[in-house]
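Moderator note: this is an archived Q&A kept for reference. The question asked for a predicted structure of one protein chain; the sequence and the answer are reproduced below.
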Amino acid sequence: MNENITRWGIIGCGRIANKFASDLKFVSDGRLNAVASRDLSKSQAFAQHHDCPNAFGSYQEMLESGLIDVVYIAVPHTFHCELAIMCLEAGIPVLCEKAFAVNAGQVERMIQTSRNKEVFLMEAIWTRFIPAINKIMELIEAREIGDIRHITADFGFLSEFDPNSRLYNPDLTGGSLMDIGIYPLFISKLLLGNPDAIKAVGVLAPTGVDVNCSVVMSYPDGANATLYSTLSAKTDTSCTIFGTKGKIYIPGRFIEAKEFTLQLDGQEPETIACERKGLGYCYEAEEVQRCMAEGRIESNHLPLQFSQELMEQMDEIRRQIGVVYPIEKDIE
């Protein structure tokens, strides 16, 4: 790896890949050096738009080019496991979009490959690394609001039903849970750990993926969480953390917060502003580069066990609401 600049490659040319590529300009020692798509014209257009010098019409060609030090995988969930393992086996560190894979079995395979090859792997839960979330964790660890008793979090937007769109296509592991429901699940796991009980209900589209998903979780210390995702309405996409001495409110969209409100019992609320460079994706890229520079094969701030357990929660939720993807049936 170049000692001064980390050369990023991107697999996929969709909306999230564009956001990530745009935010790489905020990473002082990283740059986008290559992009790959199965459609060469798409990767060439993407490369031109982001001033990237190399475009490929084959993922394997990019991995073998010697032009990248790390790859960001930004294709639908269905392909995450296959492509992550391909990259890891080629010795290329991986930042893979969330949801990490289709199910916990696939995540386990990815993690095992990372450990066998001793190559870095991390799920791209970018919200984990934005300054607002780090500040909130500091306050909670300092017991500013006492013991957490309840968390509410939601994420929803209105999307017209289209059986061919990524969001509603079961072949592309569509549905609200996999696309956006992971964010409320993430914040509850980050702050409360693993639940001892999960109760979920959902409304399914004609294609069999979930349009709405509501989850209630309880935790061993007596706390609980109510979480919601939907493709049928625009929600506040906010998060409130209730403690025994006060609360923290993260306004919409909490996943990319630049500020939050701390309200301690008997005191006036205090709005705390935080830095956010660009859209906020640069912070996860910086975390990957830090870990690579330190010779780590996983992040100590977002360890692979966290991603494994998060996917296990999603598997259980899908089991309860009745969502099974074709790729899982094929495996069976």
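Archived answer notes: The mean pLDDT is 96.
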